[in-house]
Amino acid sequence: MHRKWGLAAAAAAAALVLAACGGSGGSSESSSSAGGGGGEGDCPGADAFCIGLVTDTGKVDDKSFNQSAWEGAIEAAQATGGYAKYIETVDPKDYATNIGQFVSGGYDVIVTVGFLMGEATVEAAKANTGVQFIGVDQFQAEEIANLTGLVFPEDKAGYAAGYLAGLMTKTNKIGAVLGTDTVPPVKLFGEGYKAGALAANPSAEVTLVYHEPNNAFNDPEWGAAEAKKQLEQGYDVIFGAGGNTGNGALIEIAKAPGAGETIFCIGVDTDQFFTVPEAAKCLLTSAEKKLTLGTKDLIVMAKDGKAPGGNYFGLTGLAPYHDTEAVVPEEVKVKVEEVIAGLDAGTIATNVTLG
């Protein structure tokens, strides 16, 4: 059973093409194209539709938001007959430089991934009005005609996942290992999760652990260590949300005695049953943002000259139970479906704010 709100998700993402070559600014590049070619990162020609993607400091194969956005770029290239290339950012000081490589290379659409790239993306869009920019997880306070912020109601996905956790816990101890709370989408996921867990189970103890801002999304060792601490303290349902940091937590939980029977984990951003198979044993669900679909749709809109300025709200949902389907009671499944329907209809509010 696939639990969702809004339209159905896109078909399974295309396989990544990772033929890396050296890039500047401590970066690496890779391409996927229906047209192919291109030297030194330049768009192959004036008639080609070229898509450039700049990751945040996580890797393009992070099994989370960078990877999902890149898969959307690949699908858009296939749908439009276009050409796509990425640059991985190693240091935040290189955001502007990496964006600039695609600008100078003649790219039509530049996708930047992550809240922390917001300022550099706004500056680039204002300086290059002939290029369409898409900022993933970047809320736009000011509408700029050639910049679309792809944003999501993460609090709703987090709330639904937390509600499930509140119904599944036996110890009444529910945890989360998260990226930094200085990034609004992460905080919305975490606080939504807490609100949903307490709505389902007011007597539960809910603990959210956030990483410090530095290297928040690429620290799987820290994620694993924090998950281990929570397991040792009796937490039996733990949410991992924060790129490779969260993945480290999920993989650690899957090693625990009783994983998938009395100990559970919840993934984030995409269906991590497929992207983090090491965690499949403990995975109840994943709090999904339809990043691949949203990125693809906006790039196709850009090709047609229809990409909106300002914000574009993507879809969220919960992934299937997969291997834990049999251990989730039917009455729990029904209650979770009802909560998702209420979130979709607006009759249930998360009451989560960033203030």
Subunit organisation of the chains:
single chain
CATH superfamily of the largest domain: Response regulator
Q: What is the alpha-carbon Rg in Å?
A: 20 Å
For the record, the count of structural domains works out to 2
CATH class descriptor of the largest domain? Alpha Beta
Specify the biggest β-sheet: 8 strands, mixed
- Give the overall average pLDDT: 89
Strand content: 15-25%
List low-pLDDT spans: 1-40
Shape: elongated
Stated plainly, the CATH topology of the largest domain is called Rossmann fold
Distance between the termini: 36 Å
Task: Examine the secondary-structure arrangement and name the CATH architecture of the largest domain.
Answer: 3-Layer(aba) Sandwich
